[in-house]
Design brief:
Elements (H helix, E strand, L loop, with lengths): L5 H9 L8 H9 L4 E4 L7 H10 L3 E5 L3 H13 L4 E4 L5 H12 L5 E4 L1 H4 L2 H8 L3 E6 L14 H4 L2 H6 L5 E5 L4 H10 L6 E4 L7 E7 L4 H12 L5 E4 L3 H13 L4 E4 L5 H13 L4 E4 L14 E4 L6 H8 L9 E7 L1 H12 L5 H19 L4 H8 L12 H4 L4 E3 L1 H13 L6 H8 L5 H5 L16 H13 L3 E3 L7 E3 L4 H4 L6 E3 L13 H5 L3 H18 L9 H10 L4 H5 L6 H18 L9 H11 L4 H8 L3 H13 L5 H4 L4 H13 L4 H7 L6 H14 L1
Parallel strand pairs: 1-6, 1-7, 2-4, 2-5, 3-4, 5-6, 8-13, 9-11, 9-12, 10-11, 12-13
Antiparallel strand pairs: 14-17, 15-16
Helix pairs in contact: 2-3, 15-16, 15-22, 19-20, 20-22, 25-26, 25-28, 28-31, 29-31, 30-31, 31-35, 33-34, 33-35
Bound molecules: adenosine-5'-diphosphate and zinc ion.
Length: 704
């Protein structure tokens, strides 16, 4: 007999109205004791597929997860929703681990996250045999695949679960799409009887943009962030550590909150920057590909690439870290001729065997193809993964502003023939000089002012020729020398173009940089920026009190819905998506107050909880005492008081006695800080409590 149904659990514990996609079917399968293999894109909602069965079934669910950071994150998020969850891994002390084992034995936990190597210890397995295990969930199941990049040898041994616990349902989950990996998972984990649930791999909320570089890529990145993602979290990927450091420093000097992350930094520094990225709002991490695995942050609003990834797989995985929460996000990339040359060179000079090299070449070709296409990028991406999409997506750069093409046959012939005439060993800059008839000494030294292609290309600018060469290299009509000087030579595919048997259409360089349209929902829908900031501030404050990332209190989507619906009672608040029972109880008042203080026409309406606080204050009870008595935080009480002050229901003096000098000092600090509490608090060196500053602020807004 089930006491809770999956749907009622979804609503009461997680605060969501309905299941997404195939969640309901998957959960049904597991709840009734069947095995499942779940392939779902990032952000699709895999976690609930085992968390809900764990809550509905009797006993404790064992979740195998490959990364400590992931486990900690999931457990903290579950606890926020009032779920009894814990993890066992090497980060725990002996005592802590012992305590968790005690809780397990006492049947006090509903979910236990465990690292595979820990699970496989004979000791752990026999502990499990003494427990009532409700199900096994194997997260990131593609780690069993030897061909993938996340291979974990211990994962292969997880088939032992099937042998030792044949009657306990198992669910394996991954976001890795391909057929080979899927078969490996089924074989290695003995999931032959599992029901397969395969979702499409599209990430419709991600807007793909790939721009050819014209001018400074860093400047373009800065403009992109400034125009679209001010104050929002993002990841910028660079190829080298040096470029990471330089880019982070440059962005920081431009006033953005940018931090570096790469394998050359000390473990401690890396950890620190990662923590800040997770906890604080709006941090940009500039990183090599060392960063990302195990980052579950839902509100990453953009992923930018300043270098071309080596394959579409890498590109899709890296960009996939944007927008896990389902809200609009950007995947932005700037690439240029030099990228194409560098990657071609790297691949040509690779030490791998011929077969491997062929695969690498194929992957790079596909990546370059994606960059240069003029049709919908999403359709191309999905096609690459064997998924089809009937219509162009309308949410990529090529759909939004279709690139112009031109008949570049003649230009290509000139460019190719110039390579031929100069002996197939010169780089792009030299070739362009020849085509444009440069007077430079170097040209004359080589006698290149005498070749037939000298000066025949004055009709195109330097940049336009670079675009032509880039596309010829990307399309494989030219290849790059292995020695690394960037010399170009013709390939077989150049022949039909040179002979005039094939025409060639190329992308036109985008001349005037258009202002990017906003992909970000936040500012677009936010008529009331003050309320938005206040809600975020409230969230941050609550998160800081507990030392957890802000998104664990509520996701952006939840705050946005609060903005739209402006709930005024706990009951109304509980109907907002993402507000479950536990969070309603813990944070409901704080958010209602914020809504009340900053919300549109709400000033005239009264809220009972505020009145209760005022009544207690009128009885001469101190703020601290009121908090204790009402079992609320001091912050919440100050929120109430600030609300009451701004409604002119009480005076500032009722709350706190400040002399004229102190008042003046606070007013000044608030003014300097644009009425933001945190900077004002800091500029006053913490002399006055947040709550006091808030009340003073409320008293000024009341005056006007
Ligand atoms: P995945 O593990 O597949 O990348 P998650 O399990 O982290 O995805 O879920 C992504 C986001 O979607 C989370 O913020 C989660 O709370 C949210 N989510 C999942 N299922 C639902 C649902 N049915 N309704 C609303 N939000 C959901
Ligand atoms: Zn498109």
């Amino acid at each position: 007999m089930l006491t809770n149904t999956p749907l009622s659990t979804l609503q009461s514990t997680f605060g969501y109205d309905h299941f997404r996609g195939q969640q309901a079917e998957i959960i049904d399968q597991v709840v009734h004791g069947g095995d499942a293999l779940v392939l779902m894109p990032t952000g699709g909602g895999k976690s609930l597929c085992y968390q809900i069965p764990a809550l509905v079934r009797e006993g404790v669910a064992i979740v195998v997860s490959p990364l400590i950071a992931l486990m900690q994150d999931q457990v903290a998020a579950l606890r926020q929703n009032g779920v009894a969850a814990a993890y066992l891994n090497s980060s725990l002390s002996r005592d802590e681990a012992y305590r968790i084992e005690q809780q397990l034995m006492a049947g006090e936990l509903k979910l236990l996250y465990v690292a595979p190597e820990r699970l496989l210890l004979p000791r752990t397995l026999s502990l499990l045999e003494q427990l009532n295990v409700s199900l096994f969930a194997i997260d990131e199941a593609h780690c069993v695949s030897q061909w993938g990049h996340d291979f974990r040898p211990e994962y292969v041994q997880l088939s032992v679960l099937h042998e030792r616990f044949p009657n306990i349902p198992r669910i394996a989950l991954t976001a890795t799409a391909d057929e080979t990996t899927r078969r490996e998972i089924i074989d290695r984990l003995a999931l032959h009887d599992a029901k397969c649930f395969i979702s499409g791999f599209d990430r419709p909320n991600i807007r793909y943009q790939i721009q050819e570089q014209s001018g400074n890529a860093r400047e373009a990145l800065f403009r992109f962030i400034q125009n679209n993602h001010e104050g929002e979290a993002g990841v910028v990927y660079c190829l080298s550590r040096k470029k990471v450091d330089e880019t982070a420093a440059w962005l920081a000097q431009k006033g953005l909150k940018a931090l570096p992350y790469h394998a050359g930094m000390s473990q401690q520094e890396r950890q620190l920057n990662q923590e800040r990225f997770l906890r604080d709002d709006g941090i940009i991490i500039v990183a090599t590909i060392a960063f990302g695995m195990g980052i579950d942050k839902p509100d990453v609003r953009f992923v930018a690439h300043l270098n071309l990834p080596k394959s579409i797989e890498a590109y899709y995985q890296e960009t996939g870290r944007a927008g896990r929460d389902g809200l609009p996000a950007d995947a932005w990339m700037s690439y240029g001729l030099q990228d194409v040359i560098t990657l071609r060179q790297m691949q040509e000079s690779s030490e791998a065997n011929e077969q491997h090299k062929r695969i690498e070449r194929h992957k790079l070709d596909a990546m370059l193809g994606l960059c240069e296409i003029t049709a919908c990028r999403r359709q191309a991406l999905l096609r690459y993964f064997g998924d089809t999409m009937e219509q162009p997506c309308g949410n990529c750069d090529n759909c939004l502003t279709p690139p112009e093409t031109w008949d570049a046959t003649v230009a290509a012939q000139k460019a190719l023939s110039c390579v031929h005439r100069t002996g197939q060993r010169f780089g792009v800059n030299h070739l362009i000089d020849v085509l444009r008839g440069s007077e430079q000494e170097r040209i004359k030294q080589f006698g290149h002012d005498k070749v037939s292609t000298y000066g025949i290309g004055k009709e195109l600018s330097n940049n336009e020729w670079r675009g032509v060469y880039r596309q010829l290299i990307a399309r494989g009509l030219l290849s790059v020398d292995i020695e690394g000087f960037g010399g170009l030579h013709l390939t077989e595919s150049a022949r039909p173009v040179l002979k005039g048997e094939q025409t060639l259409h190329l992308r036109k360089l985008r001349t005037s940089e258009k202002r990017e349209r906003k992909a970000s929902p936040q500012m677009a829908n936010v008529q009331n920026k003050a309320l938005w900031n206040a809600l975020r501030e409230c969230r941050k404050r609550l998160a800081d009190e507990q030392g957890i990332p802000a998104y664990m209190i509520f996701h952006d989507a939840t705050l946005m819905e609060m903005m739209e619906r402006q709930p005024q009672t706990l009951e109304q608040l509980s109907r907002i998506s993402g507000v479950g029972e536990r969070k309603l109880e813990a944070y409901g008042d704080a958010f209602l107050d914020t809504l009340c203080e900053y919300g549109g026409e709400l000033h005239t309406r009264s809220s009972d909880t505020v009145h209760e606080t005022i009544d207690l204050l009128a009885m001469g009870i101190s703020v601290l005492e009121i908090a204790k008595q009402r079992d609320l935080t001091v912050t919440t009480i100050y929120n109430h008081l600030a609300t009451a002050i701004s409604r002119a229901e009480i005076d500032l003096e009722d709350v706190v006695q400040l002399d004229a000098k102190a008042l003046q000092q606070i007013h000044f600090a608030l003014e300097q800080a644009d009425n933001k509490l945190k900077p004002a608090y800091e500029s006053l060196d913490g002399l006055y409590d947040y709550g006091i500053l808030q009340c003073v602020r409320a008293s000024t807004s009341n005056e006007v």
